[in-house]
Every structure is written in structure tokens, then in C-alpha cells.
Amino acid sequence: MITLHDIHKYYRTGDQPLHVLKGVDLHIREGELVAIMGSSGSGKSTLLNILGVLDSFDRGTYTLAGQAIGNLSETDSARLRNRLLGFVFQSFNLLPFKNAAENVALPLYYQGVGRKERNYRAEKFLDMVGLSDRKTFMPNQLSGGQKQRVAIARALVAGPKVILADEPTGALDSKTTQEIMALLKEIHSRGNTLIIVTHEQDVANQTERQIILKDGMVATSHTQPQAA
Fold it and tell me: What is the pTM of this model?
């Protein structure tokens, strides 16, 4: 599903370019549940942005669902994201002036899906994450866990092949974290490829494989037979 070979990324902030990713090799199979870990500054967020076609890379090759990802235009990148990828963020990234159902329906709007079908699918996915009774609630009327459920429904609504979750439990308490992880594992069991960037070991322990980044490179990658 995802193959990275010798990926390098530089940021040019001053006189000296900052070498953030230093030859990342990575293969993620279709339907896999993976955690990406590493200390602050290890390159986790940069790697996730490249995987999500939100950022470019300077050297190497990236293949996503059989398609080579190179210097795509912003239009082509957006089209690819809409078709293949769903995103879940630590800060939820819900639009404050749209209700839960409208937030979930947003990716379908960008795909040109009609209003009636958008509403139907949004309500179906809100029901799947246990929030059918909150569809008209605005984000400021929802708890952190409920906001993250809305964000997960939004990530799923367009039928992506890969879900990228950036610290999806980082703003949640431990009980809500376990509820969100149970939901993510249920989604994974339906066949989605799921990549979770996290600094929380107990979250990573619930995945099938942990990929550890250190100093911009993959330090270790190990499977976990005990993961449920």
C-alpha cells in the first residue's frame, strides 16, 4: 500500500538547511495498523505530512496504492488526498461554524457529491461512531472525545484506503483515549490501513507494528503479536 525508499527532507530556514528526514525506508501493507513513534524532533510529523501528500520531499521515492508520488501540483495532490486518504488530528480541526453532520460531510462537498447524498452518508458515519444524536450540535457543544469521533467520521466518509492519525488521543483523558482507540481498532478491522503517530506507549502497544524514528531515520520496526 505504502512504500518509501531513501526519503530525504530538508527545511531551509536560515543559512544552513535543516536535514529532517535522512533516508527513510518504509513499507506498510494494505490493511495494516501501524504506530509511528519517536522523540520530539525525530521527524514524525514531517513523515506524516509526506505520507499524507501534505508536504513534498527532496529525494527518494514514494509509492501510494501503486501510484508514484512525486512533484504533484496542488490540484493533483488535493485530488489524491480526497480519493485515497483520511486524516484525524490531535486538535480535531473541526470548522466551528458548522455542525457535526456538516463537518463530516465536508470531504464529500469537495468531491462534488450532491447535498442529499452528503447528508445521508454523514449521518450514517455519525451513527457508526455513536453520535447520531449529536448531528446538529456545534463543535463547542461537544466534549473532546465527541469532537474526535466527529473527526473520525469525517476521515471515513469518503471511503479512503488509508487513515492517517496525528496524535489522535493527545488531547484526551485516559478513559476517552481507550474509547477512541477501540473505535480506531474497529475501523481497522473493517479493512482500512491505519497509521497512528503517537508519543503514548499504551496507544502504540495496541497497534500491530511500531516504527520508531530517531534522528530522521527508522531506528527500529517491530511487530507485536499481542496486539488485539
Answer: 0.90
Amino acid type, 101: A
Which superfamily, per CATH, for 2-223?
P-loop containing nucleotide triphosphate hydrolases (3.40.50.300)
3-state class (DSSP) for residue 54: coil
The beta-strand segments (E) located in the chain are 2-12, 17-28, 33-37, 59-64, 67-69, 85-89, 162-166, 193-197, 209-214, 217-223
Q: What's the rounded Cα separation, in Å, for the pair 67 and 183? A: 29
Reported as a single tens digit per residue, the pLDDT across 35-54 is 999 888 888 989 999 999 99
**Contact in structure between 153 and 117 (CB atoms under 8 Å):** no
Give the residue extent of every domain in the chain.
Answer: 2-223
Query: How far is the C-alpha of 205 from the C-alpha of 208, rounded, in Å?
Result: 8
